[in-house]
Design brief:
MCP_dom_sf, mainly alpha, transmembrane, Mitochondrial_Carrier, transmembrane helix, 300 residues, mitochondrion, Mitochondrial carrier fold
Length: 300
């Protein structure tokens, strides 16, 4: 009974901590993510709208301003980030507890890094089912202005509710999972690298010390390493996902998009937006793990 109560209490804690840390990270990340998605959408067009990351930032600012250009559609990602990260930490820690119990270990025992990598992959798979509908609406919303501007359309953009209703009306619930295979692949490998890098760096700093409490600087370094690992692992899957979710064609598949990218842009086409993505991953992941670990210390 104690173990069950411990798992239940810890699970509620992870959901709360993940929600808050996810929201904090999204506030830092969102402007960079907007540019990344636009770069990925742009390179899927016959005539790309941007020739560099800086060009995309400049055009977005000149045409739409800061709030409407860089923070358009923030409400859904804030909610989505809270749900995503809470699910991520919840499933990661729950899978560790279940693995310990399955192997006859105590809940306070530590797992090997290799075992934590498996738990990270499992948490990514679980999170992909929450994340796909949220990212679909977010990506469509982020490029809505871009489509209007490229078509010289001055009408107001659709809002989040309208986009969601249109998806459901045209394709039902299944439509909300467009691009899920790419999201699942990205999250499985990316989450494994995210948690794996973080745990490895924290273990390095701990140097065998039990009950080690990392400093703010150490959390920043470990968080930055986690973010870089996440995005470098399966970024091509993220590019395919963004194109699938921002394109209105019903005939696109994971394979057809991958073939078209390689045929028209080569290997580098899979990495459109990687620069700004890596740039954003450092402060975002750092903020998330700082918020998570410091709040965890306060409530324990």
């Amino acid at each position: 009974m104690n173990k069950e109560r411990d798992i239940f209490r810890d699970s509620l804690r992870e959901i709360f901590l993940g929600s808050v840390s996810g929201a904090c990270g999204k506030l830092v990340e969102f402007p960079f993510d907007t540019i990344k998605v636009r770069l990925q959408y742009s390179q899927s067009l016959p005539h790309p709208l941007y020739n560099s990351t800086f060009h995309a930032i400049k055009k977005t600012y000149n045409n739409e301003g800061i709030i409407r250009g860089f923070y358009k559609g923030l409400k859904v990602p804030i909610l989505g980030a809270s749900m995503e990260v809470s699910c991520l930490f919840f499933s990661y820690n729950l899978s560790q507890d279940l693995l310990k119990l399955f192997n006859g270990k105590k809940l306070i025992d530590e797992l090997k890094i290799s075992e934590k990598l498996i738990c990270g992959a499992f948490s990514g798979i679980c999170t992909s089912f929450v994340l796909t509908p949220i990212e679909l609406v977010k990506c469509k919303f982020q490029v809505e202005n871009l489509k209007n501007l490229s078509n010289n359309n001055n009408t107001s953009s659709a809002n989040i509710s309208q986009i969601t209703r249109e998806i459901l009306r045209n394709n039902g619930l299944k439509g909300l999972y467009k691009g899920h295979s790419a999201t699942l692949l990205r999250e499985c490998g990316g989450s494994m690298a995210w948690f794996g890098n973080y745990e490895f760096i924290i273990n390095y700093f701990a140097n065998g010390e039990k009950n080690f409490k990392p400093s703010i600087l150490q959390l920043m370094i470990a968080g930055a390493g986690a973010g870089i690992g996440y995005h470098c692992t399966l970024f091509p899957a993220d590019t395919i996902k963004s194109i699938l979710q921002t394109n209105d064609s019903k005939n696109l598949t994971f394979t057809s998009v991958a073939k078209n990218i390689y045929k028209t842009k080569g290997i580098l086409g899979f990495y459109s937006g990687i620069g700004i993505t890596l740039f954003k991953s450092i402060p975002t992941s750092s903020m998330m793990f700082i918020a998570y670990e410091k709040m965890k210390e306060l409530i324990e």
